[in-house]
Design brief:
Layout lengths: L19 H27 L3 H7 L1 H8 L13 H28 L1 H21 L3 H29 L5 H26 L7 H7 L2 H13 L4 H7 L3 H12 L5 H15 L4 H4 L6 H15 L3 H14 L4 H29 L1 H26 L8 H20 L1 H12 L5 H30 L2 H20 L12 H5 L5 H4 L3 H6 L3
Helix pairs in contact: 1-6, 1-7, 1-9, 1-15, 2-3, 4-5, 4-6, 4-20, 5-6, 5-8, 5-9, 6-7, 6-19, 6-20, 7-8, 7-16, 7-19, 10-11, 10-12, 14-19, 14-20, 15-16, 16-17, 16-18, 17-18, 17-21, 18-19
């Protein structure tokens, strides 16, 4: 069944419609974002719960309750606590490199299945944990799951989606990340009042719900036509899948591009060696720069530690968790708006608007906290409300720009022959930089104090200029024709040049 929206590309007539087959397949795959978002939200919430801290991090709990001389900014400075949060990201980094050859050799579907199963096991272990070792090992399994899912799901969405609506389809991943964060915050808020102090087990174990949906759903997912052509020579099977995906029999123009990309891909035996060659320099730079910039927006300051931050400015435990629910709702709302308009206004416009919004709000938050929040006590009720509103404005800017676009742009810029390798580098870079942010944030909060917002705000200014200068617009460009945007760019054309196509045909 098709939802009658005809699709053509700017360069070639790609026939097709948005079909329910594609919509349902992408909805199931996008739940990979829910498991990632749920984990981000849940880790910050449980680390603000007294019962959880008492059991696993008694030193932090003692600082909060007994040491009245310690700075507001240093109460949560514990390497063991940051190890709990960041262990997932090292595991995800390593897993993403194992995911790349599996995704390339066996398709996107097996990687999604492995990701869901590993996350399911990690959720069970976390919910049942009775010591710090079980807790952190459960986090490692969650990291393996997220590593496989983050490597394969954005690729799956970009390859299944029609080129004219690829932005909106791919942003479903970030929308699901936001839904995961909000779900975690709601659960944290609901269970933190459980008197016996075991509510954190529910928070950790509930991660099994989206993981089960992803794991079971992945069994029934079709593979993408791009992957079918890349992995075998059965072009008829790939064509039938493409016809089903596009809702029409007239798919020869797109099929020819897929076959051409596949022929080039099969000459590449070592994609990780290939991607460092000069003609792929823009893709390599973006695969590292975009996840780096996404992390130094400071969003994980909000997502990981929103309840901790709200406790720092003087809100109580219940109020801090409720404030995290509000910020999560704002993030989902603006990501949905971004999903609706990205294919109309383009990626660069949203990057610019969101960047300015984040920069201004972070400067104001840093100024207010620097002037009004000392080492002891808290903000007045009025200033605490103002900071909460500014944090919502900041989250709205991220939800409009770097949140969804940080996943969308890398997943659509790689040619097929280096696509799985490029996505692995993107995901691994994201995990690496997320690890450093998670591992250093509490220490930086202790030493930088309110200046941490100026630190991240400065990076937002840098990344906004970077996008304006070096990222070409990818709106409406078919994924297998993406190489032309680099050849036409004022800076990158000196690396790519007119010999690009010839050099690709030479193989590895």
């Amino acid at each position: 069944m098709a939802v009658g929206l005809a699709i053509t590309s700017e360069d070639k007539q790609y026939n097709g419609r948005i079909t329910w087959f594609v919509v349902l397949s992408c909805m199931i795959a996008a739940t990979g974002g829910i498991i990632f978002g749920y984990d981000i939200g849940i880790s910050g919430g449980v680390t603000s719960m007294e019962s959880f801290l008492k059991k696993f991090f008694p030193e932090v709990n003692r600082k909060m309750k007994e040491d009245i001389k310690i700075s507001n900014y240093c109460k949560f400075d514990s390497q063991l606590l940051t190890s709990f949060t960041s262990s997932l990201y090292i595991a995800g980094l390593i897993a993403s490199f194992f995911a790349s050859p599996i995704t390339r050799a066996f398709g996107r579907k097996p990687s999604i299945l492995i990701g869901g199963a590993a996350f399911l096991a990690g959720a069970a272990l976390g919910g049942a944990a009775y010591n710090i070792y079980m807790l952190i090992f459960g986090r490692v399994l969650l990291g393996v799951g997220v590593g496989f899912a983050n490597q394969s799901v954005p690729l799956y969405l970009s390859e299944m989606a029609p080129s004219k609506f690829r932005g909106g389809f791919n942003m479903a991943f970030q929308l699901c990340v936001g839904i995961g964060v909000l779900s975690a915050n709601l659960i944290n808020y609901g269970i933190q009042k459980i008197k016996d102090g075991w509510g954190w087990r529910i928070s950790l174990a509930m991660a099994a719900l989206p993981a089960s949906v992803l794991t079971i759903g992945a069994i029934f997912l079709p593979d993408t036509p791009n992957s079918l052509i890349q992995r075998n020579n059965d072009q008829e099977k790939a064509k039938r899948m493409l016809q089903r995906v596009r809702g029409t029999d007239e798919v020869q123009a797109e099929m020819d591009d897929l076959i051409k990309a596949s022929e080039i891909s099969k000459t590449i035996k070592h994609p990780f060696k290939k991607i460092i060659q000069k003609q792929y320099r823009p893709q390599l730079v973006m695969s590292i720069a975009i996840p780096f910039f996404q992390q130094v927006t400071g969003i994980n300051v909000i997502s990981f530690y929103a309840p901790v931050l709200f406790l720092t400015i003087g809100l109580g435990e219940s109020a801090s968790l409720l404030s995290a629910v509000v910020t999560g709702s704002v993030g989902i709302g603006t990501t949905f708006v971004s999903l609706l308009i990205v294919d109309k206004f383009g990626r660069r416009v949203l990057f610019t608007i969101g960047g300015i919004q984040m920069f201004v709000s972070q400067m104001l938050i840093g100024g207010i906290m620097g002037a009004q929040l000392g080492d002891q006590g808290g903000l007045s009720e009025g200033y605490a409300l103002l900071v909460s509103i500014l944090i919502c404005i900041y989250v709205a800017g991220f939800g409009l720009s770097w949140g969804p676009l940080g996943w969308l742009v890398p997943s659509e810029i790689f040619p097929l022959e280096i696509r799985s390798a490029g996505q692995s580098i993107t995901v691994a870079s994201g995990f690496l930089f997320t690890f450093f942010v998670a591992q250093t944030f509490l220490v930086m909060l202790c030493h930088f104090k309110a200046g941490i917002f100026f630190f991240y705000g400065g990076w937002v200014a840098v990344m906004t200029v970077f996008v304006y200068m070096f990222l070409p617009e990818t709106k409406n460009v078919p994924i297998e024709q993406m190489d032309r945007i680099w050849r036409e760019h004022w800076f990158w054309k000196r690396f790519v040049g007119e010999e690009y196509e010839a050099s690709k045909m030479e193989g590895a």
